[in-house]
User: Fold this.
Amino acid sequence: MTTLPVCYQKLLKRMREVNLLNTTTSILEWDQDTYMPHAASAYRAEQLAYLGGRAHRLFTAGAVAELLAECEQQGFAPDSAEGANVREWRRHYDRAVRLPASFVVRFGRAKSLSYEAWREARKQSNFKLFKPHFSKIVALVRQKADYLGYEASPYDALLEAYEPGARTEPIAQLFAELRPAIVAILGPALERSASLPKDLLQGTYPVAAQQAFNRRVAEAMGFDFTAGRIDTTTHPFCSTLGVGDCRLTTRYREEDFTDSLYSILHEAGHGLYEQGLPPAHFGMPAGAAVSMGIHESQSRLWENHVGRSLSFWEYWLPIACEYFPNLKQFTAAQVNAAVNRVRLSFIRVDADQVTYDLHIMLRFDIELKLVTGQLGVPDVPAYWNEQFEQMSGLKVTKDSDGCLQDVHWAGGGIGYFPTYTLGNLNAAQLMQKARQENPALEGELKGGHYQTLLAWLRQKIYQEGSRYRPRELMERVTGESTSIRHHLEHLRGKLAEG
Amino acid sequence: MTTLPVCYQKLLKRMREVNLLNTTTSILEWDQDTYMPHAASAYRAEQLAYLGGRAHRLFTAGAVAELLAECEQQGFAPDSAEGANVREWRRHYDRAVRLPASFVVRFGRAKSLSYEAWREARKQSNFKLFKPHFSKIVALVRQKADYLGYEASPYDALLEAYEPGARTEPIAQLFAELRPAIVAILGPALERSASLPKDLLQGTYPVAAQQAFNRRVAEAMGFDFTAGRIDTTTHPFCSTLGVGDCRLTTRYREEDFTDSLYSILHEAGHGLYEQGLPPAHFGMPAGAAVSMGIHESQSRLWENHVGRSLSFWEYWLPIACEYFPNLKQFTAAQVNAAVNRVRLSFIRVDADQVTYDLHIMLRFDIELKLVTGQLGVPDVPAYWNEQFEQMSGLKVTKDSDGCLQDVHWAGGGIGYFPTYTLGNLNAAQLMQKARQENPALEGELKGGHYQTLLAWLRQKIYQEGSRYRPRELMERVTGESTSIRHHLEHLRGKLAEG
Assistant:
């Protein structure tokens, strides 16, 4: 092993310090979402603002610019860990130095307070409580885009944080192609689902039984509970708090076990990616997930391609019956049909695979208009409700079923939503490739064995960290960049299934 | 309101930054004790070492020395918030600058790893797993005492961290007086308790019912759950993670509800002190607890003087019966006798009020010998077991019942134990004064009303923060410094009670 140049070692040391601060921030945020008492929120905002500001100052120091420039002269191979680290540090650095430290502190504090306000607003379904915070967030996000700079659209500058290299225009085009194709599937899908009894699986599923069953499924998938855990939050998420520390969260509805189960399949999909990243490069680009569109492909792959399938229920139903006696009355085909039931509904996270991306397109449209100033925050509820009714025929009667339902805007995450649809497309594309390269896969999935699939994903995706850009990674693994084709084939296949 | 001098404002700003780091450390430690997955421990140690090192560097910077010297010229009244802050900052600063930053980082890392090893060692009752870590801790603690400096004993330097102004020799004298007095009470107390059925209250007390009852008691005491919570750990504790964020922990034994109940009375006693400190001075000496011996007096006061009394059970037994039907067979006097049963036993935290301080004296003796080099870590189990048998007649057969039982040494907290006995003495002294100054108090306690007692403690102790030194505070409130008299009177009173 050759010794790395001093400039690289120095830069690595600095980045590890930044990462210690960032993972500490993740711990404080996780606690805020899970256990923190309400009265603690103002001071917690101070703590988070301080840690964020300090990390930003360390990362944007003049010394970093000098070391980066020196490292760029070292001729690291582009697909080496060092090459990838330097490339991504440069990308992050160039973005970060455009944001003044005082702005980062201000944004951090606003996000934290806005998050608390949103929780209360959603609980009371009272947009007014959230409005002043949301207005502040949008103003700050627009200012952020201006600081970051962009060519075609301010939205490009925001997208770049979640999906490096992605641009607004091609995504708008992808969505424009996808929309009519989904609508074409939606009609027959709704018709077929109409014959399925509504709420077929409704029953009483004690939270403790759900927790035990979910854990068993996550363990079978390969999620390592000595290095992770599951807690309860309003909005499920997956967060890495350090080496060997991946936290999943979900929520429970006593009358419907599928809500928490599919959340856990989803979040454990994220968790497998996090746990499969190369630990030697923890927190550095070579050891970090490449983009949200790829991250979301992993959650969707496990949730929908593995979990919402007949082979899944053929294996898991007898086991589920041990935890939930109510399920004994059903066949695997009935449960599978129920969890694939297509219907127009208010809540994105409850949406089926066919309508899900329509929810995303609505949010993308609103975000784009907010960021370009075509829509003001006070008009969001009315615009949402009007657009939603046009799309679904459903009338939103409370904002907790509408524009207050998601955490993203409260947390300043404008630009994130499109990556969900990219994730759906990537999931289908990767799963198709996994099946093609592993002919025995379907048989294994029927037997509840996930090792081959996990090993393939580890090798193709997880181990790569951010060595390649997302588009390049998709091309290397599947032979093409993200396309709508495989997802549509998958949906049509389900429709034809029976 | 006069404007504060610039030097003071600058120093305050710096101290607030240090406090942001310290409270962040508390969050990470709380998480480590409650929810953190095992595989996360090595990286968590890095995070804690980093935060501790950074806080130490900020606190010990040359600028602080200059600002402190300037502030000391301002002539702040000694009992003003500013005067107390400057006095205590000086005390902490002088101690802190004697510790090199690299030592603080090393100590932080060692403590974190040692804590994990202790957890496992205690679980397996295997001293060998803990031994190398404990040896390292003792070596570091001895080095720390040398860095800090001392006049009479290296143990003085350690005590000072927990009980400002206390010295080894007077404590040894206090203990030497206390010991025969306790032994004199012990004989008749054991005799009386021998007639009480052993494990009278044993039964089945579901954890959820214990949690609900404990919460109700803590709420009645005045603990604010919008600004605090209770979680589960091996070793109960109370920790403040920020403004409005006081976390208590306990553990549960299904067969014995009194274990978790008295833990919660104890920890909520600490919590009331923390929640009652003046929030305007959060994290600064004027808004911080004055010493561990005073802190422990608050936990003991609520646990033993309020909770282990006939008046407590006269009020709470009918309510407890709603949660624990098993208790319906008992009278308040029977329950009170059971929770005051005196017996020689292995575990300090399970010890009754009479024998408790004997456990402390054993630890004080061992700590003193470890720190002065008269005893080596490998010899601790044998020495412990021999001394313990001499004191109690009981033979220790596993180290989890002996020298592995407490968390303190694993966490580097040598010098802490004596403050438990100071706390017992102070509790009795304060409670005697509270009764004297509030003649209606006993009647209120019988009725489950704690407002008068809490208001008195808030005014006399909590609101004062660290305005006075611990000895001075005891003298101001009770008219004398810490004495063994009131505690012994209290014990003799219980013995005479019936």
Q: What stands out?
A: The domain at 168-497 of chain A is CATH 1.10.1370.30 (Neurolysin; domain 3). The radius of gyration of chain A is 22 Å.
